Each structure stands twice: as structure tokens, then as C-alpha cells.
Amino acid sequence: GLAFLHVHTRNRFGRWGSIDAYFAAYGYRYPVAFDASKDWARDLYRIAWSPTYLVVDRAGIIRHFRTDLGATGAEALLDAAMTAARA
């Protein structure tokens, strides 16, 4: 009941050259949406800062929003994701 979506908002991929190469290097296997203009990320979810992490439930309601994982942010994000997945 838990899914991930990566939204990439830039046409830069650093030393990897592409999002596919980056995902292959780290073993990630989830969908990626591109929003180079940042229009729909900003308009739909009010994302003004990257990286931003959202937990969106099955009804499309944002249950958790964070722009910095920091030392404790990842744990809170994971907790919110697990709660949303059980709902």
C-alpha cells in the first residue's frame, strides 16, 4: 500500500548525466515525473523548494510535508508514510 514518486524539477543530473543512470547507481526502482518548468509541482502541491518530501494518502490529501530531512526528518517522514499506507 505504499508507493514512491520522484518529481524531478531540473534538467541537470550531475555526474550521472541522466535520471536513469542515477537510479541505476543507487538501485532505485520507482516512477519519475519531470516538471522542468516547476509549474505543476508549484501549482498542485505548492512546492517552492527542492528537495521537498510529501506523503500523500490514497485520497490525494497531503499528510506530511517537509523540505529538509536533517538528522531527525527522515524518521518523521517514514512514520507519516507508514501511517498513510495503513489508512
Series of H and E elements: EHEHEEH
Taken as a percent bin, the fraction of beta residues is: 15-25%
Number of separate helices: 3
Task: Give the beta-strand count.
Answer: 4
Give the distance, in angstroms, between the N- and C-terminal Cα atoms. 9 Å
- As laid out across the biggest beta sheet, the strand order is 1-2
Unreliable stretches:
none
Estimate the mean pLDDT confidence.
Answer: 78
**Which structural category fits the helices and strands?**
alpha+beta
Largest sheet: 2 strands, parallel
Brief synopsis:
With 87 residues, the protein is of the alpha+beta class. The protein contains three helices and four strands, in the order βαβαββα.
Name a few traits of the molecule.
87 residues; alpha+beta; globular
Can you tell me about this structure?
The chain is an alpha+beta fold and 87 residues long. The chain has helices at residues 19-26, 39-45, 70-86, and strands at residues 6-8, 32-34, 53-56, 62-66. The strands form 2 sheets. The protein has a two-stranded parallel sheet with strand order 1-2. The protein has a two-stranded antiparallel sheet with strand order 3-4. A hairpin with a 5-residue loop joins strand 3 (53-56) and strand 4. The longest helix is centred in the C-terminal third of the chain and has 17 residues, at 70-86. The chain is globular and about 35 Å long. The termini are close together.
Topology:
Blueprint: E1 6-8, H1 19-26, E2 32-34, H2 39-45, E3 53-56, E4 62-66, H3 70-86
Parallel strand pairs: 1-2
Antiparallel strand pairs: 3-4
